Amino acid sequence: MLIPKPAQSAYDTADSDIREMLDRMIAELQAMPSWEQRSTQFLEIIDALELAFEGEDELGDEDVDDEFDEDDDEFDEDEDDLDDDEDDEYHEQAGAQEGVNGWHGDTGHVPPGGEDEEEVEVIEDFAEVLPFYVGAVLERLNESQIDRPEQAAFYLLSCHPEHIDAAQGWMQEPNNLKRFQKFVDATPDYEAILEMMDEHYGEEGDEDDDE
To answer: Which of 79, 161, 201, 211 is in the most buried spot, having the most CB atoms within 10 Å?
Structure first.
């Protein structure tokens, strides 16, 4: 399934600090030889982002640092992996990106930065900011088509409607939905992300219905 180029770049809307972090994430994924390995790395990156984004609310600063030290041990196997200083930057940067698409492109665009920043609602929930990071990373990978269930799984999380359409189109091809479900069943960490997204955006839909 071909992947159309997004009409608007998420990466280009990010400020320089966020781009530096995105560049490290992109390099981590590009170093993986296949999507089977790339999906594992992507899940580790998302886990580190979630800890950085929400950890300070749930843990003391010392506990949060301990969590990142554990993640560092896993990343140290590759020379391009995140070091301690970069993990500290996750805390500063992960929550800094304001105004991202709703999951599955509900808002239809990536809000601009710059002069309009003050008018953009500050993101407070990881489920809202995750599609931005996923979409920005995927657009910079510059892939032309989806041919693996692991690959489709992450394009499904993107803020870009073009990515979601490509992932859903791939799943409509014969046997691909079963391949995708097999990946989900075998990957509890990814399944938990889907549940988080469905719960968050399901609640938003319920609130809209009540109005």
So the answer is: 161
CA of 113: how far to CAs of 25, 109, 124, 131, in Å?
21, 12, 17, 17
Looking at the chain, which runs of residues are DSSP E strands?
none
d(CA 203, CA 60): 29
User: pTM for this one?
Assistant: 0.70
Query: Quick one: angle between helices 16-30 and 126-141, nearest 10?
Result: 60
* Phi/psi of residue 206, nearest 5 degrees: -65, -40
pLDDT in tens, 180-209: 999 999 999 999 999 999 988 876 555 555
Task: Look at residue 100 in the predicted model and tell me its pLDDT.
Answer: 36
> CA-to-CA distance for 164 and 80, rounded, in angstroms?
29
> What are the residue boundaries of the structural domains of the chain, listed by start?
11-210
Torsion-angle region of residue 114: left (phi > 0), alpha (psi -120 to 50) or beta? left
Within 10 A of 198 (CB to CB), how many other CB atoms are there? Answer: 12
